[in-house]
Every structure is written in structure tokens, then in C-alpha cells.
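Supplementary Methods, section 5.1.

A reviewer requested that the exact input to the structure prediction be made available. We therefore reproduce it here, unchanged from the version used in the analyses.
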Amino acid sequence: MRKISNKLTITFGLLILSAIFICGWYFYGQTEHHLEKELGERLVDIAQTIATLSDGDIIRQLVPGNEAGLTYRNLLSHLNRIRQSTDVSRIYIFDRHHRCLVDTEVSIPIGTEYLKLKFDQLELEHVWDKKGAASILFRGEDGNYYKSGYAPILVGDEVVAAVGVDASAAFLRILKRFGRNVLTFGAACILICAAIVFIVSKRITNPIHRLVDAVEKISSGDLDAEITTNSDDEIGFLGKAMEQMRVNIIKRDGSMRLMLANVAHEIRNPLGGIELFSGILYEELGQGESPLLGNASTGSARAHLEKITKEVHNLNQIISEFLEFARPREPREADVCLKELVQSAYCMLALEFEEAGVEFQSRIDTLLTVHVDGEQFKRVFINLFKNSLQALKNSKVAGGRVMVQSDVKDGITEISVQDNGPGIPHENMTRIFEPFFTTKEKGAGLGLAIVQKIITDHGGHIEIRSSKGESTTITIRLFPST
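The structure derived from this sequence is encoded cell-by-cell as follows.
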């Protein structure tokens, strides 16, 4: 079963992670966009300033070989001073054919074609249309990102050349550090929020877990533990409602048990009279002194009386189960030899085992003792043996066998009662310990309910493994007393 606290932690953790990721991605993108735009506008301004200060007539007369001329050197020196004062990477002037006219990179001679300008055709169209423009970010040969700003150089209304200004997009390195900081911050937020969510969810789920434990105890028949809640919210209301339900169940259960005990007591009195007078009548028939039977056959009458006596005995057994279920007593525990206890229960049914042709096997350590109420546990084994016998009789299994074994693991005593009968259908397994549930023609259906109650009162556990057509094994676990 997945815990609610885990679900809450995962859910809120994912929400927080998503919120941080989306916000971080948004702010990162917006910051990059605005910084890039600002850099582009700055480069265009620098390019336009250079274009304004440049003499277009002189620039358009530059041809390859003028690099050593005074005009070229003065123009180059002027561009270098601007480059240093504006902290840009490079300034260059080119014509419409993308050929170099002046470049602060001294290795680039006049007439060299700029291949990178082919990727900025759209921006250069604006330049040739007498407007400034900025390129998109591009990666330089050194692996860093750069951006270019362009402006036209005019002679009158004619664009004779263009100025290009390149600058490193150093802000990207800052943005990368910002991104790493966002991830670090996000991870820290997730851990902090996960801890907060875990603590809060525990405050929410702990009362729920207590209610779940209480429901499990109630479903197993333990109605003694009071259900308490300290909250005034819906969980507290649910806890109070469950506590009232527990109290009502106890009251109803007490009323039913009292009614059952009274009914059983009232039935037992006339049954005692029936059993007494049938015994007297049986004795009179043996002496031939009963005028009530007239000419009826004495042998036939005695057979009927035996049936009456047997049915009265069956009814007395059922009433005894009713009374035992309705008025259970607290166990009086003591150290008891388990082998002697099992053997005593078997002796009570030895004749029935013999008549049914069922073999009884006991594989219990002679020295093993258990701390239980001997009389109650004797009743446990009698009921379990009776169930096995009944199953073997009804199925008419050849070579029927009931085997009792014991084992001790980590201080826990395990006692198993196994038969090779037809097994229990799957649909009956969930109701096997339910009071008054029975598949027999005779019986009150209280045998296993009483067995479970006795074992539970001793702090033990009982389970059944069976399926239709296979053997049935009932395992009792007795835990060491604390």
C-alpha cells in the first residue's frame, strides 16, 4: 500500500520542480533576449557613430595595395582608438560586395571577401537601405559567441560602404552561471520543500494511519482500543464518528451476546427434561414396563429413543457453543506441555477417529511448553480436529489423515493442523472465521469463531491455507510474552 505521505511528497516535489524549471527557463530566456537586444542596439549606435565620422569619399577610393598609405594608416588608427574606447572586439568597413576596405584585424588586407556576411544578408539589406541593423549571435573561431552591429556610410544620399562592429557576448557566460545558480537554488528549494511537505504530510497522515490501525483492529474483532484524535478538522470528525461506531458495536455485540445466552439458557432447561425422560423411557422399555407404547415394537421404540437422545446431545453441544461464544472468560495462562494438551484433545475424539478410519499423527516436541490457558486451548484443538474429521467424512477420502506439527522460530511457536481432505472453496475462505457461518447441515458455525477468539485473547495469530481439491493447513502462531 502506497502511503499518502509519499504521494504528497512526490506530488508537491514535482509541482515545485516544474514551477522552478518553468520560471527559471522563462527568466533565463527573457534575460538573454533583453541583453542580446541591448548589445545589438549598442553596437548599431557605435557603428552609426563611426559611419558619421568617416569620410565616404576617401573610403570608397581605397583599393588593394593602399595598406601602406598614410590615409589607410590614419583611418585604421582612428578605428583602433574607437575600438579600445568602446571595448568592442573588432571594427571593419566593407563595400556592397562584402569586400574589406578597412579592418582593425591587420591580417585582413583590402579586397578580402567576408564570407560571414553572406549569413547576414537580411540585416545588410536594411543597411543598404540606409538603416542600422544588428546580426544574430554567432560563434567565432575561438568558440565564443559574438554579435555584429552594422551602419551605412553615406556620401550624400548614396550608400558607398558599411561599418561592421563585432563584440563578444560575454553576458552569455554570466547567464550560464545564472542558469547553474538557478539549478542549484532549485535543488535546494526542492530539498527544503520536500522536508516541509514530509513534515506537513506526516501531521496529516499520522492521524489517518491511527484510524487505519483502529479499523484493522475493529475488522479483526478487537473492540477494546479507544479511538482518539487530537484534531478538529475532517479527520478529527471521522475519528469521533469511528469511536462512536466502536461504542455502538460493543453495545450491540453485548446485547446480542446477552440475548444469545438467555435464549440458550431457556432452551437448555427443557432439553434437560427431554434427555432425562427419554432416558427413563429407554430403561422402562428395557424392562418391558411402558404402557404408553401399546403394541409398538420395543426394539423400534428404543431405536427412536436413541435418535432422540443423540439429537438432544447435538443440541446441547450447540447450546454450549452459544454460551461459550456469548460469555467468553479471560484466559488463565500457565506453562502447559503442548504434546500432552494435543493428546488430551485427541483422546476426546479417539473413537470418532477410529470409526471414520482417519489416522492421527502428532509430531510435537515432547519438551515443548506453551504459556496458555490449557482448557481453552484444548477446546481449540478439539474444534480443529472435529472440522478435519467432518471434512474427511463428507469427502470419503481413502487414507484420511490429520497431522499436528510444531516448530519454534525466533521465539515464535508455530502449531499446524493439517488434513488431506478436499480443501475449502476459495469463496468460503474470507468467511471461514465469521460467526454462524457454516457449510455443515448441523452445527451453529461458531467453532472457528471461538478458536480465533481464544487465540486472539492469547495475543496469537491464526491463518488457513487451503483451496478446493487440496489439503487444508491451519497454522497457529504464539508470540513470546513481553
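Confidence is low (pLDDT under 50) at residues 289-296. These observations are discussed further in the main text.
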